[in-house]
């Protein structure tokens, strides 16, 4: 196995240079399975989901808990925390086409520690290798736990720690092995101060535990504030270096389910509207148009009595109405969609929705022709400066959204029917 040391940092992200290092084994930093315990300020059962939005741009970021791998950086059954975005300029890692795969653990004393990470681009291609974190050699990891994010409920905030750290990595994408700390690791100090702090945003209002983090090392001067709500988890994240703040829009915790790690259309809608309820049908249509650039359907198209269009709906009631598109209650009738849906039903994350290109694959497989280009369905492009490639690049962010079959097909049919882009 080839292991690497950290070479430098770009916008808080480590880049790795491959160097041959002796490999062996290390003790488990979690003192047992990393996923056996739950901290009351960050429940992390598989299927949990938090939807955030950037307070400046309103672009969403979705955090989910995925199934644990058998090991990561010597931790057994680490907790897999994924963070996905649509805007490359958003947190996590602004300026990069990057989705985070982050591995945490909860120790028996309820310390929540971070073991390392790697990232994939928006097309799910792992890139840049794997970053590994570890308490520095010679320091007791029980006294100085690796990149600790939350401590046990006792002692209560406020208090601080300064933990001597070793940062290194692997060129493999990803690497799940267990190697000794290399002699040429990058040193650093993980500084955290905890206190109680009031927070008010669309998803939470009350007293949180604030973790003020300063990662002091030659490759990172990262400064972040994480706010944790009781029995809820992260409710706000501020990256001091960039000024980006993510506020909670929605949380689904204490789940036990398989859920896709991406951003669903629902997430983008509530981030754009700034609410999950209190809007009527036409108002929800307005906010959908802000990111689809298509005129929303009339009430008749979703089997709704036009006299009810002024009634207040939750986001889920509105989205449920959209699932009536093309069922025949109006002039729209899409029987061909059943064939496409049946081909896709064996997908592991079918119930969470599939991406634009994924649905296009089944569209072609069903014999309906070539894939539908996003620009032919009013999908807007975004140009951004990509720090990985040191060049300007263009993407279509909404092609990475997760759509239900009817959400996707309604957008396709609008373009095919010559609808005017808004």
Number of domains: 2
Shape by Cα distribution: globular
Q: Summarize model confidence as the mean pLDDT.
A: 91
Radius of gyration, CA atoms, in whole angstroms = 23 Å
Report the total helices. 6
Portion of residues in beta strands equals 25-35%
Fraction of helical residues: 10-25%
What is the count of β-strands? 20
Topology of helices and strands:
Blueprint: E1 3-10, E2 13-19, E3 49-54, E4 60-66, E5 71-72, E6 75-76, E7 79-85, E8 99-106, E9 112-120, E10 126-135, E11 159-170, E12 186-201, E13 204-216, E14 223-229, E15 233-239, E16 244-252, H1 265-273, E17 279-280, H2 281-292, E18 312-313, H3 315-322, H4 336-344, H5 356-365, E19 382-386, E20 391-395, H6 405-416
Antiparallel strand pairs: 1-2, 1-11, 3-4, 3-16, 4-7, 5-6, 7-8, 8-9, 9-10, 10-11, 11-12, 12-13, 13-14, 14-15, 15-16, 17-18, 19-20
What's the quick description here?
With 422 residues, this protein is an alpha+beta fold.
Describe the overall structure.
The chain is an alpha+beta fold and 422 residues long. It has two domains: 253 residues, no CATH class; 151 residues, no CATH class. It contains six helices and 20 strands. It has a twelve-stranded antiparallel beta barrel with strand order 3-4-7-8-9-10-11-12-13-14-15-16. Strand 8 and strand 9 form a beta hairpin. The radius of gyration is 23 Å and the shape is globular.
Considering the chains and any ligands shown, give keywords for the structure.
422 residues, alpha+beta, globular, disordered N terminus
